Amino acid sequence: MATAEDLTIKPTSQALLSDTAPARRQNLGQVIRWMLLFGGGVAMVMPLVYMISTSLKFPFEVYNLNLIPEEPTLENYQLVLGDIRFAWWFGNSILIATLTTVSNVFFDSLVGYTLCKFKFRGRYIVFIAILSTLMIPTEMLVIPWYLMSQQLGWLDTHWGIMFPGMMTAFGVFLMKQFFETVPDDFIEAARIDGLNEFQIWWSVAMPLVKPALAALAIFVFLGNWTAFIWPLIVTNSPEMYTLPVGLTTFSVEQQVEWELIMTGAAISTLPTLIVFLIFQRFIIRGVVMAGLKG
Amino acid sequence: MANLALRNLTKTYDKTQVLHGIDLAVEDGEFVVFVGPSGCGKSTTLRLIAGLEEVSGGEIEIDGRIVNNLEPKERNIAMVFQNYAIYPHMSVRKNIGFGLRTSGLPQAARTKRIDEVARILDMTDLLDRKPNQLSGGQRQRVAIGRAMVRNPAVFLFDEPLSNLDAQLRTQMRLEIKKLHQRVGNTIVFVTHDQVEAMTMADRIVIMKDGRIQQVGTPAQVYHKPANTFVAQFIGAPSMNMFEARVSAGQLTLANGSTLAAPVPLFGDRPVILGIRPDDLVAGGDAPLLEGRIEVLEPLGSETLAYVGVAGREVIAKASGRAPPAVGDSVSLSADPSNMHLFDAETGEALS
Questions:
Q1: Which of B81, B171, B193, B350 could disulfide-pair with B85, CB 3.0 to 4.6 Å?
Q2: Which residue out of B73, B74, B105, B146 would a mutagenesis test of the A interface target, given it has the greatest number of A Cβ atoms within 10 Å?
Q3: Assembly ipTM
Q4: Where do the structural domains in chain A lie, given as residue ranges?
Q5: How confident is the model at residue A61 (pLDDT cuts 50, 70, 90)?
Q6: CATH for A83-293, among 3.40.50.920, 1.10.3720.10, 2.40.40.10, 2.40.128.110?
Q7: Helix, strand, coil tally for chain A in percent (to 5)
Q8: What pTM, to 2 d.p., does this model score?
């Protein structure tokens, strides 16, 4: 039997290594590390699993914590997808998250590039000023935003939901740091090739920071897709709600309809998943260094 | 006709002056190499010519036009960078054609021009590749192709071979030289490697501390160095320098050896005597120096001998086939016509 042979061979070959104790200790360390990672993984995945599991349950089974529904059903999906309000919210969320993402990718990188590659007086102060806004919590900004929206007539409009997030200090910071990795040679070569500064930014610098743009796009999209407080405050009419705000209305009447909330949540993770799948290849692929050195 | 002229060119960063009046005229089709240690201002000069830095004083003329206030693209120049700076997200064809984007040429003419350049550089097969599929030498050729495609009045090369390994560097050196002979454009090439300078240049410009030390053909700077800096910078290993004294036409070295001064000099003054290792030979009728061999460096065709002479090291060249042994006593002599005399204070050549 081959297995019996394997068992007898292994100890002798290990004995030849003479220092088995450190090897065993290393193995133990490995096991502990894997267990910790496994524990972390389970903690991350469980809420998602429960979300999907609950979305497949009838109301009577919701407070039963079993993972596999006794009577699985797609009725919740039919209910949610058949609800016109859900279509509004989904549409609003898609529109707002997409436009905000496009705006951030464009303006954040434009400002980041300028702060990084142009040497002008006071640029450090401008950069610090932009960074310092990161330290102000959203909750503090909500009131001034609301008053602004009110005065400009943006309450209960898409524009009102979007405007605070059209450009972010975090994005500017991220892009500036990434543009630091673009060697000046590329930019100077393009300048000699006769491009104007805008063209250099657009057709030389931007393609070189694609991974950063992808990361920024994911962050911004997710941030706006899941944004709750501001959309809740600035919108009044149900047709202007975004998905997270809309989903809470399932719980305002006599009882919390968990199975519907979970169904809505499950559907709402789909776009984020798609966005991640689209952009992750840019993140993984490091393109910047390919044109440099040997 | 001077294709490129620099007149009293100066550059100041904040309060530090890095270029102190550069004057140079480069003829049409000439291959000029700027060489010097790092921080000597050679790259700054190139960047000023390219228009990547603003001139602090003086004039730059390209093709008969003062270009001081012109944008890089209006100067009719092209530049090859040390890091190649070819765009990783574009194919070789797009990289080469990039410089034509703003040329206003019709698409067919552009394609023709790119194909022509690719043919000259022998990279027609590589046109559809991306830079990350190319070797270091091929990338450098793409960078050269991108410069060539615009057919500029002046090519600027900023240490383009520094990132290549030794073998490839030698090969590219030759390729660039051949290319120059074929296309005949004016080239200004910056390097810190004196071998590159010697092998490629029609004329070498040796710089130090923001000043031109000497301009001349490789033979001139090697055989008639203008000062001790040039004498020691050009040629490997460096020229041996000895403190000496001249009086009544007699040259006396620190060790007491005397010989007739190779250059007629008046008065009684301290001088520096320079002798290249190639010119220091063992034996001879009137030995100049005596010492013991401390280290040998066999290089194949020749052997470098480090000879300890009165507490200092002198480098001499010996045969590669029958090298001496470490510990041998040698007496070294040199032909007076191969000696160089420099002023002890200013370091300028005395002739």
A1: B81
A2: B73
A3: 0.80
A4: 83-293
A5: confident
A6: 1.10.3720.10
A7: 80, 0, 20
A8: 0.78
